Amino acid sequence: MTAKTEVLHGSPKQVIAVEYPESHDVDLIVMGKSGTDAIDRLLVGSTTAAVVRNALTNVLVIAEPTNN
User: Fold this and answer.
1) Distance CA 4, CA 42 (A)
2) Which pTM was predicted?
3) Bridge partner residues of 60 (DSSP)
């Protein structure tokens, strides 16, 4: 597996979901689950949720481990 890191400019939701996958051979987008609460998501919007809804490829969302 090859992983690549890049710094891009623009709307994160659009760049991650559409622009980058469209211009590169992306098989999978891996993102962390947001730690914000419902009010923060209403005011700002969840980037992860927007990417999952609009992505041109599969998206894997990773949650932070819980302390059991």
Assistant:
1) 31
2) 0.75
3) 30
Strands (E), the chain: 28-32, 58-62
Burial of 52 (0-12, 13-18, 19+ CB in 10 A): middle
| Nearest by Cα to 29 from 45, 13, 40, 43 | 13
Tokens of 38: 């419902």
Amino acid present at 18: V
- Convert the pLDDT of each residue in 23-64 to its tens digit: 998 999 998 876 666 666 665 568 888 899 999 999 998 887
Q: Looking at residue 24, what DSSP letter applies?
A: T
